[in-house]
Please model this.
Amino acid sequence: MTRIDDKFRELRNDGKKAFIAYIMAGDPNYEISREIALGLPEAGVDIIELGLPFTDPMADGPTIQLAGQRALASGQTLEKTLRLASEIRSAHPSIPIVLMGYYNPIYNRGVDRFLGDLGDSGTDGMIIVDLPPEEDQELCIPAIEAGFNFIRLATPTTDDKRLPTVLRNTSGFVYYVSITGITGAGSASAAEIAPDVKRIKTATDLPVCVGFGIKSPEMAKSIAGISDGAVVGSSIVAMIERGNGTNQILAFVNQLSDGAHQA
Model:
């Protein structure tokens, strides 16, 4: 059992859905991202997704891409991202932390060293967007054996033939991408998403959380109402890009979490 497993069990016992928030580590600089990250649990966030800056993302729209560029320009590295996770863990011993990004920085560091450092940082799991199930031996299997959750993405194009392969070795929760496309590019309604969420839930006992395109507390509530939780990233990162203060950003996150928790 990981902190992620414990969190979903706690939420089920309380009759609540999960609210998961994403920020890019080091955006717009280390100090501000640290300040925001440390405030997320008090703003109602159940699981923190910490973005790993990368120069060539594939699944991310302009908002997240620019966040990564700002972070890299400010000197953010994998080392600093792990340090940020450690600081979150020190301040919030029970909050689940998930690292989300691409494989290249991990490959460059070396899988064994990365997993050792990840454990030292107190991180609980990872979402590595560009490693499909066919490459499970590369990172997924070693991560699971080391005690981490390896969270997989399912999409509207993940049909019944592909779904068992996607779910194999997935743990923690399934991240359902609500649209066909990149982050922040659009949104789908709960009614449109519900059949696919139901289809995935019949194939796994894992929680299914929905992300991409959730922009308001009302949307967070409606999406969480047909799933096990809502994931918001681009809408939060857009406020960071606009230069909103930490208090404003956390107030918005609190509204989103309230929406999801009311589902």
